[in-house]
Every structure is written in structure tokens, then in C-alpha cells.
Amino acid sequence: MRTTTPMDRLMSVLDQSLRTVWSAHHASRPTPRPDPEQEAGAPELGEAERRLSGALMRVNHVGEVCAQALYTAQALATRDERLSEQLEEASREETDHLAWTEQRLKELGDRPSLLNPLWYAGAFAIGWGAARLGDRASLGFVIETERQVEQHLDGHLQRLPAHDHASRAIVAQMRDDEIRHAEAAQAAGGIRPPLPARWLMRAAAKVMTATAHRL
Length: 215
Hints:
The chain is mainly alpha-helical. It has helices at 6-22, 36-40, 47-77, 81-107, 116-131, 135-159, 165-187, 195-212. The longest helix has 31 residues, at 47-77. Catalyzes the hydroxylation of 2-nonaprenyl-3-methyl-6-methoxy-1,4-benzoquinol during ubiquinone biosynthesis.
């Protein structure tokens, strides 16, 4: 059996990065859908509601692009094989989120962010830097990131049009997955970042979400 070399891993990461930013994605799980009767009885979205749902789902799509970058960088940087596998498993679930949000954007007649390459590069650098601080700090970064994403998705569930059941079903499942990822990172020994770091993470997230809402 051929041994995987650092160059193999680097080429794999490059391939995954290009696919994340430029390719269409395919989920391993079915797209979450509301109850058929509930969906059938819902009125059509008005133009303003469609634009709002599209903007919120674009922000969610950007978040999943960033999640791919974070997990990929952290998995590459760690020397712990089990941790690498855990991060790669979480990354695969985030790929489902990418596919779901892409599909919903198309259904809404909207598009992903034009700045996805920039978001990916920035998140990859942050993930790599967090991983270089050690595995416990890296896992702690996952915990804080997922908790902030959970709060962000809760906010979207409050803002999405009440009868946009299709978007709401996707966001609710994404939130449940993020909660599970945070719990897994905590169980693996992660420690939360210091308060100033959490503030910086929130500030960076606000810049990203505000920009992606429009671009």
C-alpha cells in the first residue's frame, strides 16, 4: 500500500479548495424538506420576501464555504490522525450544507457570493493559524465557531419569511448539525478561546455576513 506523502495531502487540499469555491456540490443526505402539506398550503413568496430569503441563504452558503476552509486547514495542520479524521468527517457534513444552500439559492433565483474565493482564503488562513496553536486550541476554535454559527442560524430562523418553509427546514437542520459538531469538539478536549479572541471572531463574522448579504 502506497504511503500518503505531504505532497499528496497538499494536492488533495488544493483539489478540495478548488472544488469548494468553483464546483457544484452533491449532498450525501437528502435535502431537508418541510411537511408536504405545510409546503403545499403556503403562499408563494413575494418579490421582497424572495430577495430576503435569497440574501440570507447566500450568507449561509458563505458560512459553509468558510467552514470547509477552516476544517480543511485544521485537518491538514494537525498531527493527530484521529483528530484529522474527526475534522474531515465534519467537513463532509458541511458539504451537505453547501449543496443544500446552493440548491435553495437556485430555487429562489439567486446566486452565491461573488467573493467566495476571498472568504475561503481568509478562513483557511485562520484555520491554519488556530491549528498551529495546538490541538486543544484548534478544537476550541471549532467550539466557538460552531456556537456562533448556531446563534447566527437562530437569527435567520427568526428573519426568514414565516411561510418560506423550504429555507427554514434547511437552516434548522444545519443548526442541529453545528450543535453536534461543537459538542464533539468539546468532548475531544477543546478549550474555548479567550474572550478577546471571541470578540474578534464575532467582529469578523459581522463583516462577512454584512458583505455577503449584498455580494
